[in-house]
Amino acid sequence: LPFAPASMDAVVLHHALDCCADPRSAMREVCKVLRPGGRVLVCGFNPLSLWGVRRLVARFRRDPFSELRFVSPVRLLDWMAVLGIEADEGVQYLLYRPPIGAGNFDSRIWRRLRGVLQHTRLPVGGVYYLLGRKSVAGVTPLRGVRALQGVGLTHAAVPRPTARLRCG
Predict the structure, then answer these.
(1) Which of 22, 113, 156, 167 has its CB surrounded by the most CB atoms within 10 Å?
(2) Main-chain phi, psi angles of 7, to 5 degrees
(3) Alpha helices (H) along the chain
(4) What 8-state DSSP symbol labels residue 150?
(5) Torsion-angle region of residue 55: left (phi > 0), alpha (psi -120 to 50) or beta?
(6) What's the pLDDT tens digit per position in 71-122?
(7) How many helices (H) and strands (E) does the chain have?
(8) Can you tell me the distance from the alpha carbon of 102 to that of 48, in angstroms, rounded to the nearest whole number?
(9) Quick one: pLDDT at residue 93?
């Protein structure tokens, strides 16, 4: 990213990882430009939903979904943990509807099914979002470091080894 390290307070990745050739390196770049305590909001398509099935169909028939690479929220949480980004409230799922035209999917049955899925919070929503904060390492300033510079290991008390007795 064309920003100085630790220069951003917040970064929003709205389906950016889905369109990226290397999402892991993109997350590393985001972590690099975030200041300590900075926030990141990631929004992406859920591969474990009907939208993920739609993406599999796009492999055989060219359309806008053909070039997308869905990133699993579990994998994203793992990457964030490695990079020192803590998830605030876990993964939130949205869009509990099929990835095709409205048609008969606005009927009473589909509305009821969407309501049940939203209420139970199953991880099958078409879209997820994840909010994280770059963790800050606690730093304690050292006082009197110059006084310790002349002290070597020769002045330290070293315990003497004990003699071992042979049992006969």
Answers:
(1) 113
(2) -110, -5
(3) 16-19, 23-33, 50-58, 73-83, 108-120, 145-148
(4) T
(5) alpha
(6) 999 999 999 999 999 998 889 888 766 666 655 556 676 677 777 766 666 6
(7) 6, 5
(8) 21
(9) 85
